[in-house]
Amino acid sequence: MTQTDAAAKNLGDPGKTRRVVVVGGGTAGWMTASYLTAAFGDKIDVTVVESAQIGTIGVGEATFSDIRHFFEFLRLAESDWMPACNATYKLAVRFENWREPGHHFYHPFEQMGSIDGFPLSDWWLRYPRTDRFDKDCFVMASLCDAQRSPRYLDGTPVDQGVFETGHGEETARATMAEYQGAQFPYAYHFEAHLLAKFLTKYATDRGARHVVDNVVDVALDEHGFISHVKTAEHGELAGDLFVDCTGFRGLLMNKALGEPFISYQDTLPNDSAVALQVPLDMDREPLRPCTTATAQEAGWIWTIPLISRIGTGYVYASDYCEPEEAERVLREFVGPEAADVEANHIRMRIGRSRRSWVNNCVAVGLSSGFVEPLESTGIFFIHHAIEQMVKYFPSGRDNDRLRNMYNRSTANVMDGVREFLCLHYRAAKRADTQYWKDTKTRPVPEALEERLENWKYKVPDAETVYPYYHGLPPYSYNCILLGAGGFDIRHSPALDMADETAALAEFERIRLKAEKLVQELPTQNEYFAKMRENA
Ligand SMILES: Cc1cc2nc3c(=O)[nH]c(=O)nc-3n(C[C@H](O)[C@H](O)[C@H](O)COP(=O)(O)OP(=O)(O)OC[C@H]3O[C@@H](n4cnc5c(N)ncnc54)[C@H](O)[C@@H]3O)c2cc1C
Ligand SMILES: N[C@@H](Cc1c[nH]c2cc(Cl)ccc12)C(=O)O
Questions:
Q1: What is the residue extent of each domain of the chain?
Q2: Does domain 17-61+191-268+348-397 bear CATH number 3.50.50.60?
Q3: 474 lines ligand 2 (CB under 6 A)
Q4: pLDDT confidence of 165, banded at 50, 70, 90?
Q5: Would you tell me how many other CB atoms lie within 10 Å of the CB of residue 522?
Q6: Measured between alpha carbons, how far is 228 from 477 in angstroms, rounded to an integer?
Q7: pTM, whole model, 2 decimals?
Q8: Which of 104, 183, 387, 417 to mutate to test the pocket of ligand 2 (most atoms within 8 A of CB)?
Q9: What CA–CA distance (Å, rounded) separates 471 from 473?
């Protein structure tokens, strides 16, 4: 189709109510529907159609801190949604055994300082205070080790130089991609299916129509645009814009429109997971304020503490491990609490659709793309896609240009995250099994290969990491590079001559602040016990 043809088939006149049909009611479907109603109110008609037979993935419990912009956009405070979703706080990802057995390090939600133009990590390489890079450079690492809550018992958040915005109707809202403020100090863990349920009410209360039915056919018009989807029992659902939230199936984007899927599997071989939901007695067991990623023979296990249960799962490469073996390893890791719990085996499609917006169809969520859940990027991808969808929402003119910009932006985010994840495996010192040995020779994206060589001489900064917005700041790369321990990283030669006084003072300030906060803050268990009392 030519550009003119495509432009001719626009989304109707500006000002006309637009009909948006969201196919799929998982996290992606309901986040999209809620956001669109929050963005456009009754200027838009939103219908969500979801199957009662085809289940949702239902995992996806750890987030980026940026998700607060999503809730803010919906004008929801933590107290509105957290209790309904059994949510807890996440201050970091804790990596266990990636360097060697018994070792751990954190990737925290805390900006890393810089002294005299050199990142603190560089100073640390020259003047290490202890052998713990993360604890010397970040307050959060100590709070995680001590299982602290990021809020005091009266609800006051830990002061990391971030102010909270209000939730009043009049407050201006920011999108995450444009947010240039200080690093927010925490993210969340929550039960994905409870969030979907909460957002179902949010969106339907604001006018979204909810259809429970199977989409059995997708009809295209002569321009290749979707005219309607056909359901088993509710007839045809016509729309101007269709959002494909059908998960790994990609029913609209990949099946009906035939958009190719670009696999990342050559660089990220983990393609399978087995998950368990283990009951947790909060009164007896610690609620760690972080996601834990524990390296295993052929992948890694996630541990996500929620109110009343732990979400856990083994992400592995099927080339190296059978599903039965993965389930056995996971059950052994969890212990007797998992005995009666049924395992959920999942096959993951790793990569992205070549374009995520084609004609009048936008793929959001797993249908658009996915990388293994190592840094909890799935919901971040969804959130980013929705923000961009609103930003580039077509008016009926120049849609190709808007679509192209959207496609570039969403592809950049996924390609950038792919690089960041590849770094984890290359930088991990662990090389004891064939799986871990192969991580050292497996190809990585070409540009990353070059960056990795540079980082051995100069720790990552804004000028040397993946250059487009992908959610991850340069300090995140420093955390993995220095935490995982597989590379010999040198400090900048200039630091042999520079005055170290200010850097040493900064290390001391971090140490004192961490000590003070560990004394003052409640544990996460104490915090949520208090919340329960108050409820
Ligand atoms: C193992 C694993 C762990 C993960 N962990 C995290 C994490 O910690 N953090 C994070 O951010 N993300 C994580 N994710 C990603 C996260 O789970 C997904 O991004 C999120 O669940 C979104 O899924 P979805 O809504 O795109 O698809 P799904 O949950 O698969 O939903 C698909 C929807 O489409 C509907 N559907 C399909 N076909 C039809 C049809 N023909 N007619 C009608 N309806 C249909 C289904 O009924 C369902 O409602 C993880 C993913 C996996 C696989
Ligand atoms: N600015 C993003 C990305 C980010 C910054 N630090 C971390 C740490 C972890 Cl564990 C994940 C993500 C991030 C955000 O804060 O969401």
A1: 17-61+191-268+348-397
A2: yes
A3: no
A4: low
A5: 16
A6: 44
A7: 0.96
A8: 183
A9: 7
